[in-house]
């Protein structure tokens, strides 16, 4: 079978074989470069789209996980250790319960113990930077003037962020940290960690507060070494 004739221009005929081959190679290289750049642009656009889809899916999954955790927490009561064996005081409509505490374990307010003990006339405790709060976190500019509150209702202690600037963070049932939704109750469980501004607190029985403080001090000492 005869080969197809090669079409040459006048300019091609004036070239030497070496010049012609160099020109053809240069033109081919330029075409390949353009094609490669087009592929890179196409793949880059696809990568950005895929990354956005994955990021949106991750955000949605995290929000769904936080909602599920809060829903699970709201369905489980915090059962105080002595409620079953403590008699009901005369004139009271509710049995007495153990006192709990927010114990500072890291940050500006490490070592502080804020006692939370429900009474007939005391079921809410405010938390914030100013002295008007029940639990004052002064000296921390990341804490809002009125940052959050703890309340006691139906045998549960609940934490609520009051629209603070920097938010309130706590652990969920799996130990992962999550930011509380503003104005929405979060049921506190023993050993949950709660962060306001630059300080982290541990929610525990008040009878364990001194031990928790000592453990936090020991841990801080090891970290400094």
TrEMBL record:
Domain FHA per the UniProt entry, residue ranges: 125-172
Recorded coiled-coil stretches: none
PANTHER family documented for this protein: NUCLEAR INHIBITOR OF PROTEIN PHOSPHATASE-1
Record protein name field: FHA domain-containing protein
High-level lineage: Eukaryota, Haptista, Haptophyta, Prymnesiophyceae, Isochrysidales
Low complexity bias locations: 85-96
Positions of region (Disordered): 58-96
Basic and acidic residues compositional bias, start-end: 65-81
């Amino acid at each position: 079978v005869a080969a197809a004739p090669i079409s040459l221009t006048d300019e091609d005929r004036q070239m030497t074989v070496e010049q012609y081959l160099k020109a053809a190679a240069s033109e081919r290289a330029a075409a390949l470069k353009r094609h490669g750049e087009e592929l890179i642009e196409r793949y880059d656009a696809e990568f950005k789209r895929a990354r956005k889809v994955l990021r949106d899916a991750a955000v949605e999954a995290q929000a769904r996980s936080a909602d599920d955790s809060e829903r699970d927490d709201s369905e489980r009561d915090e059962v105080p250790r002595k409620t079953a064996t403590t008699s009901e005081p005369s004139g009271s409509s509710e049995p007495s319960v153990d006192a709990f505490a927010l114990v500072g374990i890291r940050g500006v307010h490490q070592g502080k113990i804020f006692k939370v003990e429900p009474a007939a006339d005391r079921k809410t405790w405010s938390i914030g930077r100013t002295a008007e709060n029940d639990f004052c976190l002064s000296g921390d500019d990341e804490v809002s003037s009125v940052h959050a509150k703890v309340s006691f209702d139906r045998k549960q202690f609940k934490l609520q962020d009051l629209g603070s600037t920097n938010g309130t963070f706590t652990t969920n049932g799996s130990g992962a940290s999550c930011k509380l939704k503003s104005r929405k109750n979060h049921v506190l469980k023993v050993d949950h960690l709660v962060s306001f501004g630059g300080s982290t607190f541990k929610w525990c029985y008040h009878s364990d507060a001194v031990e928790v403080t000592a453990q936090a001090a020991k841990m801080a000492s090891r970290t400094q070494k």
